[in-house]
Structure formats: C-alpha cells, structure tokens
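Hi, here's the filled form for the chain we discussed.

Project: internal
Contact: R.S.
Residues: 101
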Amino acid sequence: MMKVMRKRAVKNICVVLALLAVVSMMFMSRGFALRAAVFPYSPVSALTMHAQFDRSEGGVDLYRITTNVPIERATDSALTTWVIYKVGPFHFADCCRGAQQ
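And the returned structure, exactly as it came back:
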C-alpha cells in the first residue's frame, strides 16, 4: 500500500515539475511573453496577431502589433505598442499606455 502511494506521489511531483519547466521555457521567448500579455485584452488577437520589432530603449524592447490589434474596452483605444522587458532569463510584456501610437 505504501509503495503505491509513494509511486503516485513521485508521479505527481514529476508532472508538476514538467509543467513548471514548460511554462518557464515559454516565458523565455519574447513572442510568447507578448502573446500572454495580449491574451487578457483579446484572446483572438493573441492567437492571430503579427508583431514587429520597433526599437530598443533603455534596456527594453518595443514591439508594434501590425495586424489584429487588441482594443482596450475601458478607453476604446487600440493597444499597438508593447514593451518587452527581461528579468533574468525570462521575458515579460506590458502595454505602453500614453505612448505615441
């Protein structure tokens, strides 16, 4: 009985570690970080958008979404410019509010 429970616990730990490794590897990609940040605004845009590198400023990269731009519902404005910044090996993205779009 204990062997079965121990075997199940080891299997669960392996599954959790594998999922953490996959998610970590995804956030090492700029493209996935951008799509993950766009997803809450518009899931369809996150899956079908095309982004283009704009420029690099102060250690962050600016990307411009060229097709299927997400729209922020609160202000009804297009979110075209996004900032991707790096923390260690991971990339994170956020919208440039107030930037010239």
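Let me know if anything looks off before we file it.
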